[in-house]
Amino acid sequence: MKTMQVFCPKEPTPETRASADPDSVKKLTGLGLKVVVESGIGLSSDHDDAAYEKAGAVITTDRTAAMKEADVVFRVTTPEAEEIGGLKPGCLHVSFLNPFSRKDLLKAFADAKVNAVSMEMMPRTTLAQKMDAISSQANLAGYYGVIRAAERLNSILPMMMTPAGTISPAKVFIIGVGVAGLQAIATAKRLGARVEAFDTRPVVEEQVRSLGAKFVKIDLGETGQTDQGYAKELTPEQLEMQRKGMAKVCAQSDIVITTAKLFGRPAPTVVTKDMVAGMKRGSIIVDLAAETGGNVEGTVADEEVTTENGVRIIGTAKLEACLPKHATQMYSANVANFVEHFWDTEANSFSYKLDDEILTGCLMTHDGEIRDERFRD
């Protein structure tokens, strides 16, 4: 019986995350796969080659040869088109693919007869929860957004009673109560801040309150969420109502964190220049949607911008990548769990159950065809 071979290449700079850590290597070799990793793959996440070897991986410095021999390829970032052509037909490729913006890659996968899985397209269901890389990475981004803001703020977050007087707690406003927003709320509360949060979905109010934060209510008329749990897109009129309602809260806040990152679409502008102009000097905005255009007018991806009135806007594109050890741990577990779910022990191979709801959502190409009609043009 042939042993399937997994290859995990080193990610290009500046990506700090890896598609495998020693624990995921152990899981994959336990299933019966041979795992090959490129030398140096885990250095940014504090795993040297010896740790991978101890877990059962084979270390290689010949990336091109390993690509050609692989039955399965794991990576974090989107691949270069020329590397797709170097994969053998029938190979399974698993990574973030950004399919709405990189349809050219889907065509390249189909032409090369490579079966491509997009981790962004993983269904948000209970069954797929342990494979949901978007959520696992958003958790870290929400946490680190607060940490980054606290580090840049020129004051402390908790209330402090001292002989010199009482220091009031910092006011933190979280816009968007998805996975990242909830983690941001919890982190800010743990650090002692006074936290308020807003979301267009009234259903999340109970979650906000359960974390000890105040839910800001703004009447927008009919809103809701998609069947995947995301907030529905607002009309221009609703967006304007939302901005007016949030402006007062922003003006009183020391830290504002925006988390409205919409997969497949540019991020909506929820904080305008006028709202920023009304904020206090020294206050901090962390825009978690900087990578897709930003929720804040004035955000620049991967830069910190200081406005004329002294507000600092932090636009780090991938905050989760600032915590590479745990980002790698969580992502590699998501990928390994995905393979384990579809692993056929008797055949010692990945089973393409094409009618399975998970594969229906995330398998972009199979047997030379693009499966999702939205990307076939």
Keywords:
377 residues, alpha/beta, Rossmann fold, 2 domains, 7-stranded mixed sheet, 12 helices
> Largest beta sheet: what is the strand line-up?
11-10-9-12-13-15-14
Cα-to-Cα separation, first versus last residue: 39 Å
Over all CA atoms, what is the radius of gyration? Answer: 22 Å
Shape field? elongated
CATH architecture of the largest domain: 3-Layer(aba) Sandwich
Describe this structure in words.
The protein is of the alpha/beta class and 377 residues long. The protein has 12 helices and 19 strands. It has 2 domains: 162 residues, NAD(P)-binding Rossmann-like Domain (Rossmann fold, 3-Layer(aba) Sandwich); 183 residues, 3-Layer(aba) Sandwich (Rossmann fold). It is 32% helix and 17% strand. The longest helix is centred in the middle third of the chain and has 20 residues. The model has no long low-confidence stretch (mean pLDDT 94).
Which helices and strands appear, and what pairs or packs with what?
Blueprint: E1 5-8, H1 22-31, E2 34-38, H2 49-55, E3 58-60, H3 63-69, E4 72-74, H4 81-84, E5 92-95, H5 103-111, E6 115-118, H6 133-152, E7 160-162, E8 165-167, E9 171-175, H7 179-190, E10 194-198, H8 205-210, E11 214-215, H9 236-252, E12 255-258, H10 273-277, E13 284-287, E14 304-306, E15 312-314, H11 324-341, E16 343-344, E17 349-350, H12 357-362, E18 365-366, E19 369-370
Parallel strand pairs: 1-2, 1-4, 2-3, 4-5, 5-6, 9-10, 9-12, 10-11, 12-13, 13-15
Antiparallel strand pairs: 7-8, 14-15, 16-17, 18-19
Helix pairs in contact: 1-2, 1-11, 6-7, 6-11
